[in-house]
Structures are given as C-alpha cells and as structure tokens.
Design brief:
By secondary structure, this protein is mainly alpha-helical. It is built from 16 helices and two strands. Strands 1-2 form a two-stranded antiparallel ribbon. Strand 1 and strand 2 form a beta hairpin. It is globular, with a radius of gyration of 24 Å. The relative contact order is 0.06. The structure holds zinc ion (4 copies). One zinc ion binds next to helix 2.
C-alpha cells in the first residue's frame, strides 16, 4: 500500500499532510504519535534499519514484496512440481530460495518462473529502452512486461500479478515523484493489489495515484485511465453506484479524446456496460455492447480479453433478462463459442474461463423455456 496513513493511529494523511520522521520518513499525523512510536512502538530500534533500506516507503515495499512472493509461490506450489524457471533454469532461486510461479495462459512445461527473475528481466528491458531513448510506444511495451507474460502474451493474474505489482513498485518507488516509471509503477501496484484481492489497499493506492496525477498535471487521458481503474475498485468494495458514475465519465471522456476504436476506449466501454448490468440498466448495456463488440472484434481480434469480456457481458444482458427464446438461445450460443476460444487462448485455469461456468445454468433456463413454450402450444399453459 502507498503509505498515506499515520503509522500509529492510521489517520488518513493523503499525499502531503502530517509529519515525517526526519531520518527515515515514516509518516505521522503529528508529534504526539511520533513520540509514542519512538518510545513505545519500537521505532527507536527500527528507524536506522528503515533509513538504511531507503526510507519508509521503500522499506514497506520491500517487506510487502517479500510477503507477496511467498504467497504467490505457495499458491502455485502444486502446479510447479518438478519444473524449472525458464529464465534462470533452476527450480529454487539461487539467491532468494523462492519457489516457482505460473499464472498466465502458458501450459504444459512452458512459462514457469521466479517472480524475482521476471522482475529482473522487466527491470533490465525498461532500463535499456530508457538508456537508448527508444520511442514511447516501445517504452510502454517494455513496461508492460511488469504485468504480461512474454511467452503467451497474456496478462498475469491473481497473486502472481500482485507480487509483480509490488516488485515493480519496489523497483521505482525511490525515484522522484514526477518520474514516469514511478508513476507507471504506482499503476501496476494498484492493479496488482486488485488482482490479489486486496481491494481496500488497491483503492487507497488508486486514490493516491489520482491525487498525484492531478497535482503533477498529467494528461487528461492518463487521469481518465486512472479513474477507470479506481472505478473497478469501487465495484469490488461494493460501491456500485460510484463505479457506474465514474465509468460513464471515463468512457465518454475517452471516446471524445481517443475515438471509438482506441483500445482504452473499448476496454472502458465494456467496463461501463459491466456497471450498467450490475445496476440492472440492461437495455442501455445491450445497446452499448451491440455497438462496440463489432469494433472490438475488428480492432483487437476475436481472442483478445476485452473482446471476450464484452461478449460475455452481452450474453449476460441476454440471459439475465431471460424473457424470450431468441435471447436465451443467443446467450447459449455466445457462451459456448466463448468457452472454446477462452480455453484455447487463456487456458482452463484463467479467471475468465472459470467465469464461463454459468453456461450450464443458462442452458437449463433455455431448456425450461423451450418446454414451457411447447406445453403452451399444446394448450397446457405455462409451468
Ligand atoms: Zn497518528
Ligand atoms: Zn524514523
Ligand atoms: Zn528463475
Ligand atoms: Zn505465459
């Protein structure tokens, strides 16, 4: 978590309020908490250590990184038995002794790695792009290595994404606040925390990111993307009305700035539709998806995760209405097609593929509907 709270009483300090320890930058709401932390909270012993690690934010990031790597390796332990890292070729990391992970779309014996090795690779590739002053598109692609598998080209998910988020943040947190890698790292951390289901922490990182972006005067487009992420966290903590409000703004904002074919616009169109479904604005969601699915298919491709998500949401608007035979049968067809594509592109264990587990239920609704219509036709009435 980005440190925005008093270390003693957890009062929210935003990015700038309160007081910092002059040596290690640990943050407090005021002198009383600082004094208490020193005298009774053990800060007298830790202060030097924190300073040596590079200050409170860095110390915290290092600690959370180590914890998150352990969690990721434990979650993958069964899956990685007998495998080796595709980067360092070892099963145990030579230095950290951490275990292997794999949470992307790689299958068979491909894609097993140490979080440390993945992080080291991303760090080197980003540094090289900066050193050689490669253009911004290449830099963005290189930076994506902090969250995307280089072998299957799919995003990491779950606790592995979370560990990589901490890895990224720990790598760049020591840089000046306006440094572009640090700004992007904060974004990786927020999305990683969400993937690891640390929703409250994700929310506070994203709120800090938005406040920082506004203060630094980053582009309107960047602010909209941060707000889009923030809306996702609102949704996860149950603030669905807030999520819908922000997502509407983000979608129409990006539409105006980047046009309807931009991948960010398309992703936010789907997120907006998702929020509309959540709050039962089914017709509006349906209309939006009817317009944007053909665009996503054309621009991003059939196997792209955004295209797949849009189509799943569309099936959801059809089946949750559940009114007509045509709707239900189109929902079943769509879900069957999606299941095939998702198994091929993302693999069976991917959260998206698992989310298609609703298919049997929709099939059953269709069967019931057909039977009722048949019975009505025979003069038996519904039921
Ligand atoms: Zn305090
Ligand atoms: Zn201190
Ligand atoms: Zn390795
Ligand atoms: Zn992969």
């Amino acid at each position: 978590m980005y440190l925005t709270k008093c270390a003693v009483c957890a009062t929210e300090l935003g990015l700038t309020m309160g007081k910092k320890c002059g040596r290690c930058s640990t943050r407090y709401c005021g002198p009383a908490c600082q004094k208490q932390h020193w005298e009774e909270g053990g800060h007298d012993k830790l202060c030097k250590l924190i300073k040596k690690a590079g200050g409170a934010e860095q110390y915290h990031a290092n600690k959370k990184y180590a914890e998150s790597v352990t969690i990721a390796a434990e979650a993958c332990a069964e899956d990685v038995k007998g495998q080796t890292c595709f980067i360092c070729t070892q099963a145990l990391h030579w230095k950290t002794k951490e275990g292997l992970v794999r949470m992307c779309a790689c299958r068979g014996t491909a894609g097993f790695a140490h979080v440390s090795c993945l992080a080291e690779q991303a760090k080197i590739l980003v540094a090289e792009a900066v050193e050689n002053n490669l253009d911004s598109k290449v830099k963005t692609e290189r930076f994506a290595r902090w969250s995307m598998c280089s072998l299957c080209k799919q995003g990491y998910h779950g606790v592995v994404r979370c560990a990589l988020g901490w890895a990224c943040w720990k790598t760049y947190v020591g840089r000046p606040e306006a440094d572009s890698a640090r700004i992007m790292a904060m974004n990786q951390l927020g999305n990683g925390l969400r993937a690891g289901e640390h929703y409250e922490d994700a929310l506070s990182v994203m709120e800090a990111e938005l406040a920082m972006g506004r203060r630094l005067g980053v582009s309107e487009e960047h602010l909209l993307i941060v707000q889009g992420n923030l809306a996702g966290s609102y949704e996860m903590v149950g603030r669905t009305e807030d999520a819908l409000r922000v997502r509407r703004d983000v979608y129409f904002g990006l539409l105006r700035l980047n046009g309807e074919l931009d991948p960010d616009t398309l992703r936010e169109a789907n997120n907006f539709a998702d929020s509309l479904c959540d709050l039962d604005h089914r017709d509006e969601a349906k209309m939006l998806l009817r317009k944007t699915i053909p665009l996503a298919r054309r621009v991003l491709g059939e196997g792209n995760e955004i295209t797949l998500r849009m189509r799943r949401n569309y099936a959801r608007t059809l089946s949750s209405g559940g009114d007509t035979l045509d709707d239900l049968s189109e929902a079943v067809d769509t879900l069957e097609d999606l299941e095939q594509i998702a198994r091929r592109v993302l693999g069976d264990a991917h959260p998206f593929t698992e989310s298609l587990g609703i298919l049997p239920q929709v099939r059953e609704a269709l069967t019931t509907k057909r039977r009722n219509i048949f019975l009505e036709g025979c003069g038996f009435g519904p039921g």
